[in-house]
Amino acid sequence: MADCLISFGSNQGDGSAAFARVFDALAAKTRFLNVHGSRLYATIPIGSSEPQANYVNAAIRFSTDFEPADLLDELLKLEVSLGRVRHGRWSPRTVDLDLLLYGQQRLRHSIENGKTLIVPHSRMSFRRFVLVPAAEIAADMVHPTARMSIGELLAHLDSGSSVVAILGNPELAKTVAHAIVAKHNSLSGNSAAKFSEASSHFAIVPVETMEQWSALPGKPMLAVYWRHDHQDAAAALVRKIVDDVYAGPRLELESDNASAIASEIEAAIAAMLPGSVL
Asked: Which of 3, 133, 138, 141 is the most exposed place for a label (fewest CB within 10 A)?
């Protein structure tokens, strides 16, 4: 049996009722044991440029003998049964169930319908709206990639230095930083105020060498890096830092589009802020 953790999110319809239905559906299945749910938390929407209602977020922990791909399939079927219709990333949803942890397994492979199964969840390590409810029922569970427990990851968001370190590609990192500043300057009203809160508390620092990493003012809040499947100095630096040196929240990127990366980092910063959980 695998010790598993999933997250629940909803900002359409009755989120409390939807969570109760999810919990009851899992608890009723014979292949799900020791089902525990967190309290419900109100959180602000992250990532979308369009106005949205606040979210209801929670976490559920259980044991199961389903294999990871089969477990994900069960969760997707449950979403559909509760009226989930996918309209794109960061869009409103009646229910969203993400597989966060499946024991200590690290998985990344393609499954049906063009989807990719990634475990641990690729963005859970820095999202306060995930970590707060998860820590309530699974503070002891260890993130196998970040090499910290859920409780430690949440504590890190309150104690790490206000640095987002971008590893291995200094020129692109500088372009991304400039794109974020330009975006901030182009915003107005409440959007500008929200972004200003994030940007004023965090420094985006390119890191090209171990000497630059060592010179950072304390442990970074977040390490950002690109997937490197080839052998070069940048890839070696990334592997050394994220695999051996740094334990903590991380964001792995695949795109090299500066605007897209800027949006990713902006969303990550917003998700780390204390005010993201109400």
From this structure: 3
Which among 37, 172, 53 is positioned nearest to 97, based on CA atoms? 37
**DSSP label at residue 277:** B
The answer to whether the CB of 202 falls within 8 A of the CB of 164 is yes
Cα gap 18→13, rounded to integer Å: 8
Tell me, rounded to whole angstroms, the distance of Cα 250 from its chain centroid. Answer: 9
And the tokens for 76? 């997707």
What span, in angstroms and rounded, lies between the C-alpha atoms of 11 and 69?
26
How far CA 218 is from CA of 21, 159, 166, 240, in Å, comes to 44, 10, 15, 18
- 212, 107 Cβ separation under 8 angstroms: no
CA 187 to chain centre: 25
Tokens 């939807």 locate to 18
Length of the chain as a residue count: 278
Rounded Cα–Cα distance for residues 44 and 192 (Å): 16
Q: What is the SS3 assignment for 237? A: helix
Q: How far apart are the C-alpha atoms of 207 and 165, rounded to whole Å?
A: 6
How much is the average pLDDT of 43-53? 85
Beta bridge partner(s), residue 108: 118
Query: Which residues lie below 8 Å from residue 140, measured CB to CB, with a gap of 6+?
Result: 149, 150, 151
Residues 6 or more apart in contact with residue 164 via CB below 8 angstroms: 202, 203, 204, 205, 220, 221, 222, 224, 265, 268, 269
Q: Of all residues in the chain, what percent carry a pLDDT higher than 90?
A: 59
DSSP-derived letter for residue 215 is: T
The whole-model pTM stands at 0.91
